[in-house]
Amino acid sequence: MLRFILSKLLYLIPTFLGITMIAFGFVRVLPGDPVLLMAGERGITPERHAELSHQLGFDRPIWEQYLDFLGRLLQGDLGNSLVTKKPVLTEFLALFPATIELGLVAIVIATMVGIPVGVIAAIKRGSWFDQVSMTAALVGFSMPIFWWGLLLIILFSGILQWTPVSGRISLLYYFPQVTGFMLIDSLLSGQKGAFLSALSHLILPSVVLATIPLAVIARQTRSAMLEVMGEDYVRTARAKGLPSSRVVGVHALRNAMIPVVTTIGLQIGVLMAGAILTETIFSWPGIGKWMIDSISRRDYPVVQSGLLLIAGVVMLVNLAVDLTYGLINPRIRHK
Amino acid sequence: MNAFSRGLLAASVLALGAAAPAMAKTFVYCSEGSPEGFDPVPYTAGTTFDASAHPIYNRLVEFKKGTTEVEPGLAESWEVSEDGLEYTFHLRKGVKFHSNEKFTPTRDFNADDVIFSYDRQGNAENPWHQYLAGISYEYYSAMEMASLISSMEKIDDYTVKFTLSRPEAPFMANIAMPFASIVSKEYADTLEAAGTREDLNNLPIGTGPFKFVAYQKDAVIRYQKNADYWGTAPMIDDLVFAITPDAAVRLQKLKAGECHLMPYPAPADLEAIKADPNLKLDEQAGLNVGYLAYNTTVAPFDNPKVRKALNMAINKGAIVDAVFQGAAVAAKNPIPPTMWSYNDAIQDDPYDPEAAKAMLEAEGVSDLSMKIWAMPVQRPYMPNARRTAELMQEDFAKVGVNVEIVSYEWGEYLKKSTEVNRDGAVILGWTGDNGDPDNFLAVLLSCAAAGEGGSNRAQWCNEDFSALISQAKQTSDPAERTRLYEEAQVIFKDQAPWATIAHSTQYVPMAKNVEGFMMSPLGDFTFETVDLVE
Amino acid sequence: MTDATVKLSDAQIRRRMLADFWYDFRRNKGAVAGLIVFAILVLVAIFAPLVAPHSPTLQYRDALLVPPVWSEGGQSAYLLGTDAVGRDIFSRLVFGARYSLFIGVVVVMIALTGGIILGLVAGYFGGWVDTIIMRVMDIVLAFPSLLLALVLVAILGPGLTNAMIAIAIVYQPHFARLTRAAVMGEKQREYVTAARLAGAGNLRLMVRTILPNCLAPLIVQATLSFSSAVLDAAALGFLGMGAQPPAPEWGTMLAEAREFILRAWWVVTFPGLAILISVLAINLMGDGLRDALDPKLKRS
Fold first, then answer.
1. Weakest mean pLDDT among A205-219, A283-297, B43-57, C33-47
2. How many domains, chain C?
3. What backbone phi and psi angles, to 5 degrees, belong to A126?
4. Rounded-to-integer distance, Cα C110 and Cα C169, Å
5. B134 CB near a chain A CB, below 8 Å?
6. Is the ipTM of this complex over 0.90?
7. Which burial class, exposed, middle or buried, applies to C10 when counting CB atoms under 10 A from its CB (0-12, 13-18, 19+)?
8. Which of A230, B413, C71, C296 is the most buried (most CB within 10 A)?
9. Is residue C74 part of a domain?
């Protein structure tokens, strides 16, 4: 098992190196110049421009800048933002919990709703429940979530006024950030109503973000269940007269979960992409919005290190999924 | 406010009861973006200044609320020498800096703080000059302070003398700007000793009406009233900035009672805001101008008559309606009407496609094809350049001029638009920094600002105009300056290097119970005069 | 002689397969509905100038933000109302169908071609060629697709063409992986060995012999990518990085409409609905295709 993990990790090293190259290279070929953006309408003389470029190190050869980037990376230094002048890692760590919280709640919603729906749809194949839920799942799967978010805002925040419009918690609550997760921090603060407030802020964005993964998980669960229930051992179990709840619960569900777990793991990339849109619509202070802003401001260090960190996180999650899969299914380990 | 949030409010008042004094007044401002940092000096964005320079800091002199006039700030009084080169400031006594967990001031504000605040920007040898990686002082250098201030001298603890290298009338307005905010030298020394210099930017200490409490990146900034404020202490106890980049969301929050005041409403929402019984709307002409700058060095745009003819073809009223949704006034001069020396006697070119067509023909211009540059971003002086360009395209088609609209990524746009041989007329604009006409006319239209990398996008160099401008800059008599600037505007109108488009109106929607908010002609948002009434 | 018989039976087999496929596809009501909607969409796109009552870019200055015809204040000339500069929304949606279909087709073509070539080469040759190609694909897949597309568009410059290229680049690893896996599976089969012994060259082997047998998963992936491409292009447009105004691309329309969210619900609602309906139609078709082409699912 250890060798399996090690080999997986070793495999990641060249991939990660490739990612650093792409992140760095992309950012250097971005048209536009942060120095110009800082100057704005006022314009900047060529001399002053050269002076600032030199100060920021943009006038050195590309490969030298890259090696410098790698060298600092190894020391855990991801550079400083050109806009705020603060370390990129500090900013990332300040914003990442917001994205994680949103993503986790979304995946929990998607799983808690998606799996039961998929299972029931499979058992009652062809029933109205199956048809309605699978149609809904397909609609969800086809949803432009940026539009969906806007519609929900119009309905729930605008017309009904049930949910707050944006932000993570009512501004009336003020307590120290312990974990960075508003749901947990609000509980730790002991302030009455804080948790409810955090929850009411989280609900719309996480529902929007959960839409596509929910649809995918429901569909995947249904087809995995159908496949497993067609297998010989399930038929045998049925033929033996075991109660169908036992057949479904013990035999079918457990085996059907293997592909479903993989599907859930793969949704992390989808979630990150969705987070960019969701955070933009709901003004959610997470890393998706941060990346978009940084791209438009040509904040080189933030874009390159941000890309790297996000890719790193996705890679690690994929690795975790791989390993879990290896645990569930020993055959893979020895392949 | 709806039932749900009212419930929350009740709950929270109960919860806060133990910690805070009952009935603490919390004012929430839905700000439009995150501050870059809290040291106002290295940054240039108005958003940053609203969160740093205005609540936390003071300057030697301040803009009088609601005007661009200069009044005493941390300097109680000052004298200017006969030749206009020596400025002696007498500092206010007994001004206390804020304190925080890491720092408690042991002395009052004095001359050392003033000298430190300027020296760190202008003097590369100052240990604080590079206290953040890649820091630069754009405003300090843009206002040419380095070459302007030849020396600073501490006469005693409460007297500082600045010696200038040349007479400069806008100097007093310049040092009322955010980049001239005064920081505490004692705090800097404490941070230096602790090895946490970046805290000057993260945990700011100033003398302003509000104390910084906490910042949660991209979400919330919290301030507390400075009870020891040297001026009139604020009426509200807590000031909160809820960072909300989207205009529609800001309005939603305002309507839902989640904040009390917001900047920059979408023009499309103004009607709804006016109709809402729970809201009120302040408005004021903004200190800005949106313009279309021809390249006056390229034929046929080097001919003032051609430029004039094109200006007559533009239906400014339609642009004000469709692009600004009526939230602007059509511009005839390069400076806005709220600025002193605005020459209202000037007649705008009439909108007259027929006459324009005839004029073009008289100049021998036919089958003209040109480019109009439309910037890719929204700016306060131009909410939608693309839409403006489309309207102009139609207008020019009516006088037989074929227009191609081009655009570039914003940074590229700013750069390429300064190129001397630029092909096409460029839509751009300007928002004033300090209310001085020099800040518009010299920056945007003088010979010195022409050339690559300069801000004179028309590449327009008119000797007479430039002479007037520089004469005005060296004159300290306001009446004389006014006369010179008025004359310069006449030349501008006659030569028409730009089509002046509009001065956008600034709107500030707020809850009905907000009182005492004063709009700043400079577009600043300050809250020391604000109160909440029931 | 033998050659001719083989060809004939090939054609017969193909016709037979097609008939089977059509039979399976037709049984799926959703797929047929999707197909019909999609066909209508294609027709609307082709005949847009005939269907649309107005030009998509013409501004009626006296009819700004007119609500849909059934709402109070609606005008019969503007079926779904007008936008902020007085353009007819229905006409813009009709012309917008062209963009979406075009985007889908182009993205899938580029991604499919690129992916197939890379996958074939990697799977057929194996060894270090395979390692390098697949490593690069892994790297591309490590970035969230929309984020990568955003950065690519930022590099290439905002615009429809660049948005399509960016999305295609982000999608093609999926095709490369599928092709490679299929090729690896087929490579060892007897018919391939037989063809090789008969003297078929590498190229011929890859393209004529192996590729046709890997098509089913690729077709399914292509339909999936088609609908995702429409969605992602709209998302890029929404973020201001896709098609640029005044192009009546649906995502771009939504981006422009966002400031009117409180005042004019119709400028926000209809473009999004158009995206949803077309993506849904394509996905319905995709489901039908998959069920009809995938023998494993047919059994269950």
1. A283-297
2. 1
3. 85, -10
4. 8
5. yes
6. no
7. exposed
8. B413
9. yes
List CB contacts (< 8 A) between B222 and chain A. 174
Better-scored residue on pLDDT, C55 or B426: B426
Which residues in chain A (17-76) have CB-CB distances under 8 A to chain C?
A: 18-19, 22, 26-27, 29-31
Q: What is the pLDDT of residues B278-332, one digit of tens each?
A: 999 998 888 999 999 999 999 899 999 999 999 999 999 999 988 888 889 999 9
Q: What SS3 class is residue B131?
A: coil
Q: Does B389 touch chain C (CB under 8 A)?
A: no
Q: How many residues does chain B have?
A: 534
Residue A296 to residue B413: CA distance in whole angstroms:
13
Output the DSSP codes for B418-454: T-TT--SEEEEEEE-SSS-THHHHHHHHSGGG-STTS
Q: How far apart are CA C144 and CA A308, in angstroms?
A: 11
pLDDT at C107: 94
d(CA A23, CA A311): 9
Query: H/E element holding B459?
Result: none
Predicted TM-score (pTM) of this structure = 0.81
Judge whether C22 lies within some domain: no
Residue of C265, C216, C272, C219 whose CA lies nearest to C249: C272
Instruction: Compare all CA atoms of chain B with the CA of C63 and give the residue at the minimum distance.
Output: B322
In this complex, how many residue pairs, one in chain B and one in chain C, have their CB atoms less than 8 Å apart?
46
User: Of B42, B256, B414, which has the smallest distance from its Cβ to A41's Cβ?
Assistant: B414
What residues make up the domain containing C97? Answer: 39-297
Report the CATH number at residue C219: 1.10.3720.10
Question: Token digits for C198?
Answer: 């008969």
Say yes or no to pLDDT of B489 above 50. Answer: yes
C59 assigned to some structural domain:
yes
Rounded CA gap, C293 and C300, in Å?
14
Inter-chain CB proximity B318 and C85 less than 8 Å: no
DSSP H stretches of helix in A230-286: 232-239, 244-246, 253-282
HEC sequence for chain C: CHHHHHHHHHHHHHHHHHHHHHHHHHHCHHHHHHHHHHHHHHHHHHCHHHHCCCCCCCCCCCCCCCCCCCCCCCCCCCCCCECCCCCEHHHHHHHHHHHHHHHHHHHHHHHHHHHHHHHHHHHHHCHHHHHHHHHHHHHHHHCCHHHHHHHHHHHHCCCHHHHHHHHHHHHHHHHHHHHHHHHHHHHCCHHHHHHHHCCCCHHHHHHHHHHHHHHHHHHHHHHHHHHHHHHHHHHHHHCCCCCCCCCCCHHHHHHHHHHHCCCCHHHHHHHHHHHHHHHHHHHHHHHHHHHHHCHHHHHC
Domain ranges across chain A: 88-334
Name, in order, each residue with C-beta under 8 angstroms of B210's C-beta and a sequence gap of 6 or more. B55, B56, B223, B224, B225, B226, B234, B239, B527, B528
The residues pairing with B162 across neighbouring beta strands, listed in sequence order, are B87, B152
Nearest-Cα residue of chain B relative to residue C240: B376
Show Cβ contacts of residue B9 under 8 Å, excluding neighbours closer than 6 positions. A172, B1
Q: Is residue C45 part of a domain?
A: yes
Q: CB-hemisphere CA count at 13 Å for A169?
A: 28
Distances in Å between the alpha carbon of A265 and those of A215, A219, A315, A323, C172? 14, 15, 11, 11, 21
Distance, in Å, from the CA atom of B235 to the CA atom of B532, rounded to the nearest integer, reads 8
C-alpha span between B40 and B52 (Å, rounded): 6
Say yes or no: domain A88-334 is CATH 1.10.3720.10.
yes
Q: Determine the pLDDT at residue B510.
A: 96
CA angle B202–B203–B207, rounded 5-degree value? 125
- Whether B219 sits inside 8 A of A34 (CB atoms) is no
Q: What pLDDT sits at residue A164?
A: 82
- Helix B304-313 to helix B478-495 angle, to the nearest 10 degrees? 90
